[in-house]
Design a protein that fits this description.
It is a single chain. The longest helix is centred in the N-terminal third of the chain and has 23 residues, at 2-24. It is globular and about 60 Å long. Strands 1-2-3 form a 3-stranded mixed β-sheet, covered by helices on one side. The protein is of the alpha+beta class and 116 residues long. It is 52% helix and 19% strand. The mean pLDDT is 91. It has helices at residues 2-24, 61-70, 72-83, 98-112, and strands at 34-41, 47-54, 90-95. Helix 1 (2-24) crosses helix 3 (72-83). Strand 1 and strand 2 form a beta hairpin.
Length: 116
């Protein structure tokens, strides 16, 4: 049972550290307007998937992924230093469309609501 919790704890630590890097150290203009929404780690902690949203939506997602890829060496090094894991995880970055979907559903619900 403890084995299943460790990837979750490491994912939270990676999210916290990456959020700090995004605010403090990453100056790439492609990463402006990014909000990290979650991290999922594999059970062996060698690979993780970072989910993000963008203020401008999915239109800017490919640029943001390119910005993350460009900074991936720096990100891995800093996460490795701060977390002290045996292996620094390889991170993939993926756009999370959840916020866009929620906004679209909200707009549809407002449209279909009867006017009082």
């Amino acid at each position: 049972m403890a084995e299943g919790r460790r990837p979750e704890r490491v994912a939270e630590a990676v999210l916290r550290e990456l959020s700090g890097l995004l605010v403090r150290d990453l100056r790439d203009p492609r990463l402006r307007g990014i909000t990290l929404t979650g991290v999922k780690m594999d059970d062996d902690l060698r690979h993780g998937r970072v989910y993000f949203s963008h203020l401008e939506g999915s239109v800017r997602a490919p640029d943001a992924v390119a910005g993350f890829r460009s900074a991936s060496g720096f990100i891995r090094r800093e996460i490795g230093k701060s977390l002290g894991l045996r292996y620094t995880p390889e991170l993939d970055f993926e756009f999370d469309p959840t916020l866009e979907r929620a906004a679209r559903i909200d707009a549809l619900l407002k449209q279909s609501a009867p006017k009082a």
